[in-house]
Structure formats: structure tokens, C-alpha cells
Amino acid sequence: MRGVVVAAIITVLAIFTQVPLLVGYVPVIWAGEEEWEAPSGEKVTIDQLINGKHVVEERIMGNMEYYDGKMITIEGEVIGDIMYRGDYAWITVNDDPYSLRKSLEEGGDFVGLSNQGIGVWVSREAAKKIMTCGGYKNKGDIVSITGEFHRACHEHGGDTDIHAANLEVISSGYAFSHPFSYGKLLAVMVLSLICIYLYYLRHQKIKKVIREE
User: What is the pLDDT of residue 111?
Assistant: First the structure.
């Protein structure tokens, strides 16, 4: 009986918080072993992931020594905030499956791992091109960044970053709403009533045992 109650509670939480149940859920890592399709539509093979070609951030993090000091190009969504530092600024560019297609906030499906972001050091002038940063309420601008990758940047306390030589906005960001899901509310209410009913049955059973004794 206790197991049924626990299972019902977990289901309620999963529905209400939009967290996927682990049963049957297999993360899909975006960017296949053979090729990757950039938002611009260009298909890039592994042999082209260097010196001005598009590089998936997942590959950078797995081969930092190889890319260290090389000029690379990444494409992704600008997320968080733009942090200005004099004539320069920090931005975070994210190219996980949710940044380059319909995000979870917009009602997209669970399609893989998230938060594959990297800090990018850009000029203030380049940062001014960015109109929208991604977050809970917004889809951020999709940008193409070309710059030098640093595994441990000596200018920025050993952080991993990219010093941008060029920034281009590929597509503009936009705001989106979070409509209330009455279906999920109904599911939560039904499952809650089931939990209460099961608890009531258990309580009655205990009272009956006590009376018989």
C-alpha cells in the first residue's frame, strides 16, 4: 500500500514540475558521430570541425587540448545576461538541443542533455548587436561566434572561454508565454484524491485491527 502511495506522489510531482520519469527515458546527445547540421543548414563533418568551421560545444569540452588556441566557429543561443566590462562584455552561448530548436519553456519535447554553454569574451560594440537573451520568458538571439578557444585563459583567471573576433546574429530572439495547463491540474487533483483515499483505507484498516485486539 505504501509503495502505491509513493508511486502516486512521484507521478504527481513529475506531471506538475514537467520532470520526465526515468522509466524508459534515454538521453539523446545531439550532434551525431558523423555530422552535425548547423542552424544555418550547413552540414559539417568531423574533419571540418576546426579553423573557422562550426564546432559543437560538446566536442570542444571533450577535446579541449586539441582546440586550445585554435580559431573556431560556434552557433548557439545567447542566454542569461550580458555583463559589460569596459570596452568588452561577457556573454554565454548555449548550443544544446533546446537552444537551437523549440525549448522546453515553449512546450518542446525532452530531446537530450542541456546546458552546453560557454563564456564568450566579445567587444562592447559586438555585444550591442544582441537584442534578446534567453531565459524563462524569452528565446535568445541565435548567434554565430568566430574566435580563439582557450582551455585555460591566462587573461581571465584560467577560465575556459572563447575570445570572439566576429559575432553575427543569425536569428532574433522573441518572448513567449507559459499558458496554464488545466489538464495537468486535473491530473494532479485526481492523483491527490487517490492518495488521500488510499491513506483513508490504510487508516481504517489500522483502526479495525486495534478494535479486534
Answer: 63
Same domain, 125 and 78: yes
Count of structural domains within the chain: 2
- Residue 199's domain comprises 1-30+180-213
Please, what's the largest Cα pairwise distance for the chain?
82
Q: Is the dihedral of CA 56, 59, 64, 70 positive or negative?
A: negative
Return the C-alpha cell found at 94. Answer: 548555449
Tell me the C-alpha distance between 76 and 97, whole Å: 10
| Closest to 51 in 3D by CA, of 163, 118, 166, 148 | 148
Do 75 and 143 fall into the same domain? Answer: yes
Give the tens place of pLDDT for each residue, 53-89. Answer: 456 666 777 788 888 998 888 888 999 999 999 999 9
pLDDT of residue 46: 38
- Please tell me the predicted confidence (pLDDT) of residue 47: 42
The answer to whether residues 44 and 105 belong to one domain is yes
| Confidence (pLDDT) at 209 | 80
Q: Is residue 82 domain-shared with residue 127, that is, in the same domain?
A: yes
Q: Are residues 77 and 154 in the same domain?
A: yes
Q: What is the DSSP string of 79-103?
A: EEEEEEETTEEEEEEE-STTTSS--
